[in-house]
Amino acid sequence: MNKKTVLILACPLVLLLMSLKTAFIPSQGKKPLTDSLKRPAKFGFGRPATLQEIAAWDIDVRPDGKGLPAGQGDVKKGKLLYAQKCAICHGVDGTEKPGVKLPGNALVGDTLATSKPKTIGNYWPYATTLFDYMRRAMPYNLPGSLSNNEVYSITAYLLNANKIIKADVVLDAKNLPKIVMPAKKLFIMDDRKGGPEIK
Ligand code: HEC
C-alpha cells in the first residue's frame, strides 16, 4: 500500500470519527433544548388517589412513635413468626454462625457492652424505627405482607433476643416508643443549619 492509498482510506475514517464526535458529545455554549410543543392542561389519564390508597402508603413511624398503628404483639408469637418468615435468611436464632454466610444480616448479637457488630442491640437508635423498617421492607421477598400485630410480635421477639426487653412484655403503640435502645447514645443529633457546616 503506498502513501496515497493510505491517505485516501484514512479520509473517510476521520470524517466518520468527526461526525460521531458531534453526535455523541454535546457541544458547549449552545442553547439548551426546550419543548417545542405546548403541553395540554390535562393528559386525560389517571385519577386522584383514594384516601384508602393514600393510607396504604402513608405508614411511616417516627422515632417518637408518631404513626404507630393500633395493635399489639408478644415475644412468644414473635418467635414463631420469626421461625416461619425470617429464619431462612437471618438464621435460626438471628445470629451468624462461623462459616455460614446468611442471605440477610445477623439480627441478634453481643450486647453493646461486649462488642459492636451492627445488630439491632448494638446499632439501632430507636425501637420505633425497627418496627417501621420491618413493616415496610420485610420479609425481603414479600414486603408489606405482615399485619400490624405480627410486626409488634416480631419486634418484641427481636428486642427480647437482643436483651433489651423482658420476655413477658406485650408491645403496643404506647410502650414501644418508651424503649431506650442501647445504641442511642452512640448517635449525635444533626443540628446543621443548611449551610456549609461540616462535622
Ligand atoms: C429472602 C431473604 C429475607 C427474608 C425472608 C427476610 N429478610 Fe430481613 N433482610 C434481608 C436482606 C437481604 C436484608 C438487607 C437489606 C438491605 O440492606 O437493604 C435484610 C435486612 C433486615 C433488617 C435490617 C438489619 C440491619 O440491622 O440493617 C431487619 C431488622 C430484618 N431484615 C428483619 C427481617 C424480619 C423480621 C423478617 C421476617 C418477617 C425478615 N427480615 C425476612 C433478607 C431477608
Automatic annotation (TrEMBL):
Residues 73-162 form the Cytochrome c domain. Residues 1-23 form the signal peptide. InterPro entries: Cyt_c-like_dom (IPR009056), Cyt_c-like_dom_sf (IPR036909), Cytochrome_c-type_DH (IPR051459). The keyword Signal applies. It holds the Pfam family Cytochrom_C. SUPFAM superfamilies: Cytochrome c. The keyword Iron applies. It comes from the Bacteria. Keywords: Heme, Iron, Metal-binding, Signal. PROSITE patterns: CYTC (PS51007). This is Cytochrome c.
